């Protein structure tokens, strides 16, 4: 054997040894990670904070097609018969309205909010085909449950709730059976125009995940959530640590993280039914208002508000301070409340 052959054999032996060592390393990594992942996937949901416990204890439940739906109601201003229903956004819950609840209670006779199916304290069935149409039917069922069928209803909505509100508006304007009689509609920072709506990266991944969705939804964690939700708040109006935790707890309650991919189909529904929902908004004679946080990366300024004012020319608009983003009722509750009450008192 020549010297070159001997060197070559030694080199091949070294490579084989290196590959063997690397393989053993990955095996050890796998042996460590697999049980850790298995443990993580079975982490129980966090305990309710005192704030969440108080919110839940002052609410109630009604049953819709076998599912339990949470709602909260309070009686406020005497001498007024006005009723307002609050429709929250994705991925949070009726708790989004806690900062403006009391001011609304001083103006309205009844203030009502619910957790949509799949959100907050409501049931989160799976598998289930979540849809804007079903959520609108839940709102109608709640109004019936509360004996308000003959009342004119003011609707105040945000984000996902904006689209539910537009379906309710369509049914009302077309006299569909069981429809609400809508007195006014106020929208806020909802992706009502697919062409100006920019879903977050994680939303796009989850809604199109297909067979990977069960894995990806189980891998969602508090840090990922905080990073995602923090990006849609302004830099000077970030949630407190407790607000972050309460939002996350509401998602994890009843394993809500596992239905996120199904709920996110609302993005595709908005595109499919654009003519129905945008058409209802542009043709209605119901008083309509938009409260808008202009720093919103989901519905960016000025693209969104220009499209809104162009298409919904009958509507009035309140644009809040430049540092207010996607959750205006939480980021600027005073400005939001003033804008809303100015609208309500204008007709």
Distance between the termini: 101 Å
Count of beta strands: 8
Query: Uncertain runs with pLDDT below 50, 5 residues or more?
Result: none
Percent strand equals: 5-15%
Detailed description of the structure:
With 347 residues, the protein is an alpha/beta fold. The chain has one domain: Alpha/Beta hydrolase fold, catalytic domain (Rossmann fold), CATH 3.40.50.1820. It has 15 helices and eight strands. The protein has helices spanning 3-40, 50-57, 101-107, 132-145, 160-173, 201-207, 213-218, 222-230, 241-252, 260-263, 266-272, 274-283, 303-311, 328-331, 333-344, and strands at 59-64, 67-75, 83-87, 110-114, 152-157, 181-188, 288-292, 316-319. An eight-stranded mixed beta sheet has the order 1-2-4-3-5-6-7-8, with helices on both faces. β5 (152-157), α5 and β6 (181-188) form a beta-alpha-beta unit. α4 (132-145) crosses α5 (160-173) and α5 (160-173) crosses α12 (274-283). The longest helix has 38 residues, at 3-40. It is globular, with a radius of gyration of 25 Å. The model has no long low-confidence stretch (mean pLDDT 91).
Q: Nutshell version of this structure?
A:
The chain has helices spanning 3-40, 50-57, 101-107, 132-145, 160-173, 201-207, 213-218, 222-230, 241-252, 260-263, 266-272, 274-283, 303-311, 328-331, 333-344, and strands spanning 59-64, 67-75, 83-87, 110-114, 152-157, 181-188, 288-292, 316-319. 46% of the residues lie in helices and 14% in strands.
């Amino acid at each position: 054997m020549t010297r070159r052959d001997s060197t070559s054999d030694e080199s091949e032996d070294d490579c084989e040894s290196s590959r063997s060592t690397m393989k053993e390393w990955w095996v050890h990594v796998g042996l460590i990670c697999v049980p850790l992942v298995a443990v993580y996937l079975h982490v129980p949901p966090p305990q309710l904070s005192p704030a969440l416990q108080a919110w839940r204890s002052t609410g109630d439940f009604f049953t819709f097609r076998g599912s339990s739906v949470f709602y909260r109601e309070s009686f406020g201003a005497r001498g007024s018969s006005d009723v307002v229903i609050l429709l929250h956004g994705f991925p949070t819950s009726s708790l989004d309205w806690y900062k403006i609840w009391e001011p609304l209670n001083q103006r309205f006779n009844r203030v009502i909010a619910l957790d949509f199916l799949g959100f907050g304290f409501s049931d989160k069935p799976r598998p289930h085909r979540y849809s804007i149409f079903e959520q609108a039917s839940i709102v109608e069922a709640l109004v019936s449950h509360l004996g308000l069928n003959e009342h004119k209803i003011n609707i105040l909505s945000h984000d996902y709730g904006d689209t539910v509100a537009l379906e309710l508006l369509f049914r009302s304007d077309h006299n569909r059976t069981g429809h609400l009689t809508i007195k006014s509609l106020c929208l806020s920072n909802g992706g009502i125009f697919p062409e100006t709506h920019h879903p977050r990266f994680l939303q796009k991944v989850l809604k199109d995940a297909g067979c990977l969705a069960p894995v990806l939804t189980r891998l969602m964690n508090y840090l990922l959530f905080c990073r995602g939700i923090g990006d849609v708040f302004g830099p000077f109006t970030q949630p407190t640590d407790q607000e972050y935790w309460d939002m996350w707890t509401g998602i994890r309650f009843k394993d809500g993280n596992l239905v996120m991919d199904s709920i996110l189909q609302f993005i595709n529904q908005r595109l499919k039914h654009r003519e129905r929902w945008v058409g209802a908004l542009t043709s209605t004679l119901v008083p309509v208002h938009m409260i808008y946080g202009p720093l919103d990366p989901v519905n960016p300024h000025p693209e969104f508000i220009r499209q809104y004012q162009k298409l919904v020319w009958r509507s009035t608009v309140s644009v809040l301070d430049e540092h207010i983003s996607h959750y205006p009722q939480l980021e600027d509750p005073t400005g939001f409340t003033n804008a809303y009450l100015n609208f309500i008192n204008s007709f």
